[in-house]
C-alpha cells in the first residue's frame, strides 16, 4: 500500500467538500500523528472544550458537613423547617460541638411515605398524618410499630386544622361547609390519594356532613360526592393546590391547612384573600418519627432523636407558632404568636365516626374505598 | 432526518414544487398562521421566562442563582450530562455502526428497541427503576446489603437520564451511515487499514458533524429531563434535585424570580443548542448533499 494510492482513492468527486483530503493517508499518519490531529481541528477542539468545561463544573463537587440527616416531610412545612433546621444546627453545635446539616425533601405526604418505603434514606419523617407513617411501618418495617409513644403528645409536636381561603371580600359568601356545594362555587383541594392535607380536607367535610345528617352515611356520601363535583382540578399536594388557587387564579375557595392559608396571605398580600374559619373543622395531628432502620444503619440515631425532641423545646414551639401551626405546648410560646389562631370546634380522627386512622384510612382512601366510590371528575 | 428538506431545496429547477403553484393569498395565510403559532407557543413563553427572571432586577437574578441549593442543582445537572452524554456517544456509535454497516439477524428488532425510550412515557422510565432498584423490589435488598445506593441518589438519576436519552445519537447516525454505505470502509480495509484505523480515519470523519448534532440534542434532553428524574430523585434539596426539579420547587415556594432564573439558564441552554444546531446543519447539510451527489 502506498500513500499515493490512498490519495487517489480519497480524491474522488464525492469527497470533494471535505476539509481535509489527507484523512486517508494511513502511512503518513502512522509516523506523524500530530499532523493528522491538525487536519480536523474543529471537531476535536469543540468536543474537548465541551468535555473539559463540563468536567470542571462537575468536579466542584458537594461539600459535606460532619453529620447529615435527611428530614422527609410533607408539602407546606418548607418554610417552617428551613428556619427550624438552622435553629437546630446552631443548638446542636452548642450542645455537642458537632456540625450537623439537615437536608429536606418535600412533597405530598403519601408520595413521600412511598419514597421512604422504596428506599429514600430518611432519618426522620415529619408527615401530614399518622396513616402515612403507619404505611412505612407496614410496608417496609423501617419504623418500629410503637413510634407514637416515642415523643410527647402522640408524637405530634403541633396540631393544625383545615380552613377556607377565599378571594378578597368573599364574593361568593362562603362561611360554612354547605356553602361549598352551592351552584357556581369552585373548590380547590388536592388529591386525597397522594396528599395528607387533602385527606384532612375530606374528613373535615365528612365530619360536618355527618353532624348535619345525624349520622346518615348515605346522605353524608352524597354531600362528599357533591363537594368533589365542584373541584375542577386535584393537585398531588397541598402546595400545588395553593399555587393553583393563589397564582393561577383558579377556583373560589381553597380548602387549606391553616398555616398554608396564612402563608398565602404573607406571600401574596392580605389584600388579595380572606381567611374564613368554618364553625367546625378537623383536628389534624401531623406526626413525626425516627426511621429506625435508617438511623441505625447510618449511625445517626442520637442526632435524629435530638432533632425531633427539639421540636418540643421553647425555641421549636415558638417557631412552630410563628409559622401558624398550633403548638402542642402553647405554654412555652409568647401569647401574641397564639392570638391569631382562634378556637373553633374541632373533631378528632379518634372520634367514633372515624375510629382512628387505622380504620379511617382503608375505609375512606384505599382502592375502592368511599373516596373512589363517590369521586367523579368535575364536568 | 435532514433528508427531505435538503432534497427539496437542491433540485429546485427540474422539480417545480407544489408550493409554487399555490396562490399568493394562500401562501400569506399559511405563513401568517405559522408565524403566529410559533410566536404564541414558542417565542412568548421564552420572553416571559426572561421577563420573570429579571422582574426584580439583575441583582435579584444573580442573588437567586447564587443560592446553595440552586448551585448544587446546577452542578448535579452538569454532572448527569457529563456522564450520560459520553455513554450515549459510545452506545450510539456502536449501535449505528452495527446497524448501518452489517447484516445480522434481529437487526430490525434492535432498531425498534433503540426507539423504545422515545415511545415510553418518561414517568414509566423512572418507575421502571423504582420497581427494579427500590427497597421493596427485586434488586433492592441485595444492593442495600452491599451498600450500593442507586435510587434516590445520583446513580439513579444518571440511569434514568441515560435511558431517556438513549436513542438520540444512534437515531442521528443510523440514517447517515446507511446513506454513506460501506464502500469507504471496504476500500480502507482492502488497503490494509486495521479496524481501529478504519473507524478513526474513515468512519468518524464521515459522521463527525452528525455525531456532534446528536450530542447536542442528547445533552439538551439530559439537562432538561423532568419526568423520569422526578420519579427517582427523592427531591432532597441540595443533593438530588436537578435544575428542572429545582425550578418546580422554587416555583412552589412562591420564589418566582428564583424559579425563572433557573429556568432562564435552561432556556439559555436551549438557545445555544439551537444556534449550534443551525450552524451544524449548514455545515453538515452541505456535506450530506455532497455525499449524495454520486
TrEMBL record, chain B:
<keyword id="KW-0764">Sulfate transport</keyword>
<feature type="domain" description="ABC transmembrane type-1">
    <location>
        <begin position="74"/>
        <end position="275"/>
    </location>
</feature>
<dbReference type="InterPro" id="IPR011866">
    <property type="entry name" value="CysW_permease"/>
</dbReference>
<feature type="transmembrane region" description="Helical">
    <location>
        <begin position="150"/>
        <end position="170"/>
    </location>
</feature>
<dbReference type="Pfam" id="PF00528">
    <property type="entry name" value="BPD_transp_1"/>
</dbReference>
<dbReference type="InterPro" id="IPR035906">
    <property type="entry name" value="MetI-like_sf"/>
</dbReference>
<feature type="region of interest" description="Disordered">
    <location>
        <begin position="1"/>
        <end position="20"/>
    </location>
</feature>
<feature type="transmembrane region" description="Helical">
    <location>
        <begin position="254"/>
        <end position="276"/>
    </location>
</feature>
<keyword id="KW-0812">Transmembrane</keyword>
<feature type="transmembrane region" description="Helical">
    <location>
        <begin position="29"/>
        <end position="50"/>
    </location>
</feature>
<keyword id="KW-0813">Transport</keyword>
<comment type="function">
    <text>Part of the ABC transporter complex CysAWTP (TC 3.A.1.6.1) involved in sulfate/thiosulfate import. Probably responsible for the translocation of the substrate across the membrane.</text>
</comment>
<keyword id="KW-1133">Transmembrane helix</keyword>
<dbReference type="InterPro" id="IPR000515">
    <property type="entry name" value="MetI-like"/>
</dbReference>
<feature type="compositionally biased region" description="Basic and acidic residues">
    <location>
        <begin position="1"/>
        <end position="13"/>
    </location>
</feature>
<dbReference type="InterPro" id="IPR005667">
    <property type="entry name" value="Sulph_transpt2"/>
</dbReference>
<feature type="transmembrane region" description="Helical">
    <location>
        <begin position="120"/>
        <end position="143"/>
    </location>
</feature>
<protein>
    <submittedName>
        <fullName>Sulfate ABC transporter permease subunit CysW</fullName>
    </submittedName>
</protein>
<keyword id="KW-0472">Membrane</keyword>
<feature type="transmembrane region" description="Helical">
    <location>
        <begin position="76"/>
        <end position="100"/>
    </location>
</feature>
<comment type="subunit">
    <text>The complex is composed of two ATP-binding proteins (CysA), two transmembrane proteins (CysT and CysW) and a solute-binding protein (CysP).</text>
</comment>
